[in-house]
Amino acid sequence: MLLLEITTSLDGFVAGPNPSAEEPLGQGGELLHEWVIATEAWREAHGMEGGEGGVDDQIVRERIARAGATIMGRRMFSGGEGGWAGDPRANGWWGDEPPFHHPVFVLTHHPREPLELRGTTFTFVGDGIDSALEQAVAIGGGAEVAQQYLRAGLVDELELHVAPLLLGGGTRLFEGHLGDLPQPLERTRVLVSESTGATHLTYRLRS
Amino acid sequence: MLLLEITTSLDGFVAGPNPSAEEPLGQGGELLHEWVIATEAWREAHGMEGGEGGVDDQIVRERIARAGATIMGRRMFSGGEGGWAGDPRANGWWGDEPPFHHPVFVLTHHPREPLELRGTTFTFVGDGIDSALEQAVAIGGGAEVAQQYLRAGLVDELELHVAPLLLGGGTRLFEGHLGDLPQPLERTRVLVSESTGATHLTYRLRS
Lengths: 207, 207
Hints:
The structure is a homodimer.
Chain A: E1 3-9, E2 13-15, H1 34-37, H2 40-45, H3 54-66, E3 70-73, H4 74-78, E4 104-107, E5 115-117, E6 120-125, H5 129-133, E7 138-141, H6 143-151, E8 157-163, E9 165-166, E10 171-172, E11 183-184, E12 186-192, E13 199-204
Parallel strand pairs in A: 1-7, 1-8, 3-4, 3-7, 4-6
Antiparallel strand pairs in A: 2-10, 5-6, 8-13, 12-13
């Protein structure tokens, strides 16, 4: 059961234009994730109090409870282009205590020793998407990794969190060829957050 | 009050790839509109009996009741590239009785005399989007016309009908620069069709 779960702007971008060291998610890209950061579950996972309940919180709790492991790309691991240059201490992006608390598989052309950080072990996988799939459950992103699995027809479930936002540019989730198309999908759930305006759409891609 | 109301695939396409005379909406493009064609309201407007009630039907009824006029591009009027070549009889796309029954403004570089077809008058507007806006209410499409109004910041309300479908290519609704961005939006409504899997998302773009 492979789950692709990602936040997109209404115009289809999962990161804004012109990413930089200061704005690794591009201009406006951080706005995408406001719905997550507002939740009680996210704050809990980061050792903070407070936060909102409701639909967004439910979604984040599900994600934490459900995923036995996460797959992500090298750039998502390192926090933007050139962020991590082989130095295991340069893990400024996810902090000293990453929020996963389960195995994370990082797809990379430069495998290295696993990195353990307070309950989260990052394992670096160099031999393609299949070997990561034998072990992992949720695709963390970014867009290129998501597209790799979509193209290979390996995604069972697609959950899109549509943030109430136009970014106007940046990295698209859906770009290039994605396999056998057109593909009708079965929509299995819609959850609507009144507080943040995020809309959570889930589709089954494989039966 | 200018309303942009359009059906998109989950991956952001309002028409499929490789449009042709046989498939003016591109490969798979007709699947986008299955939710409309299934409704009682659409069938009524086309002089047919039967059809589905429910959320999709509600949306189509609203559209018919609400729009005092429609704006569309030349290609949407003519049914694809090169469909209408100046011959007022070659209106095979919308048929002898177009479903609008209110004024339709067609943006074109080649204005011609208005065309009246059983309750729908097509007026051809050559002098830009402002003059059409003085008169019209709903933007019918296609994507280029929609983008023109989005870019000009003239759209008050955006209603996206998200069809449960991946097209993988074709014409994107959101392409190129769209004005001041990032732009947070106020989501004003979500309607969920259980029968067709379409999700109807409405956002306010201007207050």
